[in-house]
Amino acid sequence: MTNEEKVEHWTGLSDYDLETADAMLQTKRYLYVGFMCHQVVEKIFKACYAKRKEETPPYTHKLILLAQQGDFYGELNEEQIDFLLEIEPLNIEARYTEYKERLLRRLTPTYCETLINRTKMLQQWIKTRL
Q: What does the alpha-carbon distance between residue 10 and residue 43 come to, in Å, rounded to a whole number?
């Protein structure tokens, strides 16, 4: 697979996950909205990493680490970094029973809509750097 194909692969997965986040919102599966928003950002970050480093991104779910190792962390503004810190735990918390109940209280329909909108904005911003 060429590097450009890797970038397209990760970008396509990110787009698919964004559609899935929207579907989860429509079906009121709010726990998975947060999880999928994390996945959208993770995969578009991996596309950016592949583009800039011309190598396979690391096997990690840590968004800040991907941005740092992908050499684009310094381009993120404070609001974007705050958003990453907000969604980073959603990847783990959605998987474990002890976190799910607390997380579900936070993931209201309005909050989930906001998550998706902020995710779309960050994804589009990264796409301008590909």
A: 5
Nearest C-alpha neighbor of 39 from the set 106, 123, 128, 110: 123
Indicate the average pLDDT of the chain. 93
> Half-sphere exposure of residue 55, counting CA atoms within 13 Å on the CB side?
7
Q: What is the number of other CB atoms lying within 10 angstroms of the CB of residue 77? A: 9
Q: What is the mean pLDDT of residues 22-33?
A: 95
Length of the chain: 130
Helix (H) or strand (E) holding 26: helix 3-26
Residue 85 Cα distances to 19, 54, 56, 82, 112, angstroms: 22, 26, 24, 5, 16
